Fold:
Amino acid sequence: EEERAQLSMTGDMVMSVCEWIVEGLMDEYHAGRIRTPAPVLTRCLQELSTGVLGFNLAFKIVTVPFPFPFAQLTSVCVSAMVVVLPFALADFTES
Structure:
């Protein structure tokens, strides 16, 4: 319940959960309950950071709108290429 209340008040839920995981791992490591070498633990933290970075990049792609004129221009160019390319290839391969 307490975690849900904290998550509802925060602006970035993913980063909050990531911070909780890191705090929990470090608390357990300093208490001696995690007996893994430091390089292995830092690799776990690095992978967690990489996952958060991937999430943020995907979120950025979703939230930034794709420009409508660019989409239309791309569609027209691809259609023109589909029509013109077979004739151009036929012309270049005859010679």
